[in-house]
Design goal:
The chain is an alpha/beta fold. It is about 30% helix and about 30% strand. Strand 12, helix 6 and strand 13 form a beta-alpha-beta unit.
C-alpha cells in the first residue's frame, strides 16, 4: 500500500499531483525513472515517471493527466487514501554529466518528467535553458520549480496568453542559432518531440526523448512497450524510457498509442454511466 500524503489539482483539474509515501523508492530513484501504480486490486497498472523525490520525507511525487477510466479512478483518491500497489524505480536513469550548455524542452505532463532531469543537469554544472509549452497559460504546470532549475527560462503558449505566442520549436530554433548547445532533452506530446528532434537533427545536436508507449508489466516480459529505435525493436520499460530522438520512429509510436482509443472511450463511457446510476 502507498498512502497519499499530499494532493493538488492543476491545469483546471485535468492534471493531478500526488505525493506518496514510498521510502525505499525515494532513496533509490534517479532522474528519468518511473513507477507503476495500481489504484485497486482489479485496476489497471499505470506507468508514471516520477516528478520529484524526497528521501528525507520518504516520498515520491507523480503527476498525471486524467484521460481515461484508470486515471479517473486515480483522481478519486484523496489524501490519506492508499494505492493498492506501487512498484519501482523502473527504467534506466538519465545519464547526467557536465556537458556545457543544454536545452530542456517540455510540454503537457512531460514537464513533470523533465523536472528532475533539468534539476540534475543544472546541479551537475550545466548552463540550462528551459522552454515550456502549453495550449494556454492556465494549463501550464510546475512553472516555479522549472524556473528554479534553469539558468534561462522561456514560456510558449499556443494562444499567446503568456510568453512567446507560438510553439516551443520556435524558441528552440532561436536558442540553437545563438549558442553552441551540447544536448537537448525534449519531453512531451509525440508531435512536439518529433518536431524538436527534426530541428536538432538538422543542427547536429544530440537529443534525448522520454517515450510513453502502452505498458503492462514494466519489466521487459510482456513486450507491449516495444518501440522502433534505429531500426531495432526496443522495450521502453527496460531499454528506456529515454532514447536517442534522432533514431525513434515517432509515426509508429503514435499509431501504437492510438490502437485502443475506441476501447478506452467505451470503458470511460461505461464508468461515467455507472457513476451517474
Amino acid at each position: 500500500m502507498a498512502k497519499i500524503v499530499y494532493r493538488e489539482e492543476m491545469a483546471q483539474g485535468t492534471i493531478i499531483l500526488n505525493e506518496i509515501e514510498a521510502p525505499r523508492i525515494s532513496r533509490k530513484a534517479k532522474p528519468g525513472q518511473f513507477v507503476i501504480l495500481q489504484a485497486k486490486e482489479t485496476g489497471e497498472r499505470i506507468p508514471l515517471t516520477m516528478a520529484d523525490t524526497d528521501p528525507e520525507k520518504g516520498t515520491i511525487t507523480i503527476i498525471y493527466m486524467v484521460v481515461g477510466k484508470s486515471t479517473a479512478v486515480f483522481k478519486e483518491l484523496a489524501v490519506g487514501d492508499e494505492y493498492y500497489a506501487l512498484i519501482g524505480p523502473l527504467g534506466a536513469p538519465t545519464h547526467v554529466e557536465n556537458m556545457g550548455k543544454v536545452i530542456c524542452v517540455g510540454g503537457g505532463t512531460g514537464i513533470a518528467v523533465l523536472h528532475p532531469i533539468t534539476r540534475a543537469l543544472k546541479e551537475a554544472g550545466n548552463e540550462v535553458t528551459t522552454i515550456l509549452g502549453s495550449r494556454s497559460y492556465d494549463l501550464l504546470i510546475m512553472e516555479e520549480k522549472m524556473r528554479a532549475a534553469s539558468d534561462h527560462f522561456h514560456i510558449c503558449t499556443d494562444d499567446g496568453s503568456k510568453g512567446h505566442h507560438g510553439f516551443v520549436t520556435d524558441v528552440l530554433k532561436e536558442a540553437l542559432a545563438k549558442d553552441d548547445i551540447a544536448m537537448v532533452v525534449a519531453i512531451g506530446p509525440i508531435p512536439m518531440m518529433k518536431f524538436c528532434s527534426l530541428i536538432t537533427k538538422e543542427a547536429g545536436v544530440k537529443t534525448l526523448v522520454s517515450l510513453n508507449p502502452i505498458m503492462v508489466d514494466g519489466t521487459g516480459m510482456c513486450g507491449c512497450c516495444r518501440v522502433t529505435v534505429g531500426g531495432e525493436t526496443k522495450f521502453a520499460c527496460v531499454d528506456g524510457p529515454e532514447f536517442d530522438a534522432h533514431k525513434v520512429d515517432f509515426d509508429e509510436l503514435a499509431k501504437r498509442l492510438a490502437s485502443y482509443l475506441d476501447d478506452e472511450k467505451s470503458s470511460m463511457d461505461a464508468y461515467n454511466n455507472c457513476k451517474v446510476q
